[in-house]
Design brief:
single chain, mainly alpha, 8 helices, about 55% helix, flat
Length: about 180
């Protein structure tokens, strides 16, 4: 997965890559060439040559991880722990009585109130991710929805429609699209 797809390097992957660079330093120390290191560690020769130059200039310490790229998080681990306690109390405890969902706008407001820190929606989303929260989308259904009619249609009419479809079309037709025919 590429960075643009929402991927990237997490803490475990960063540690694994650091271990590979340390193995490269050990191999360089015993006289193994950069091309051989690339083959042994299954990395590109370009990386192996870069690591060799860094190792020659600064030793094994030069190949150590420099940490996550980018700026440090706006909220510290202590602040995140305090935020989690407050989030677990629910939106009602923060004064939101009508709707019992945490939205990012509400989390931004809570962070501003608790820590006197102005953050954006993206920062709130990252904080929620660091805390282990995921997006929860409510299920909105029409007030006029007739569950009995839907159950009846699925049980008695959909099998007949499904049998009448050409071969291979079963996976591409949903009950709602078949009903519109």
């Amino acid at each position: 997965m590429r960075y643009g797809d929402g991927g990237g390097v997490d803490q475990a992957e960063r540690a694994r890559r650091g271990q590979v660079r340390q193995w490269a330093a050990e191999l360089f120390a015993v006289g193994v060439s950069a091309v051989e290191v690339a083959g042994l560690l299954e990395v590109s020769t370009k990386s192996a040559y870069q690591w060799r130059r860094a190792w020659v200039a600064g030793g094994a310490a030069a190949l150590a991880s420099k940490g996550a790229s980018g700026p440090d998080p706006k909220l510290s681990d202590v602040q995140l722990a305090r935020l989690k306690v407050r989030l677990d109390l629910g939106p009602a405890a923060a004064g939101y009585g009508a709707d019992q969902r945490w939205t990012l706008v509400r989390v931004v407001a809570l962070i501003a109130t608790m820590f006197h820190l102005r953050v954006g929606i993206t920062t709130a989303w990252q904080a929620m991710r660091r805390l282990g929260y995921t997006a929860q989308l409510p299920i909105h259904r029409a007030a006029e929805r007739d569950e009995q009619a839907i159950t009846h249609w699925r049980r008695y009419q959909w099998p007949a429609v499904k049998r009448s479809l050409p071969a291979g079309a079963h996976g591409s037709v949903s009950p709602t699209s078949a009903a519109k025919r």
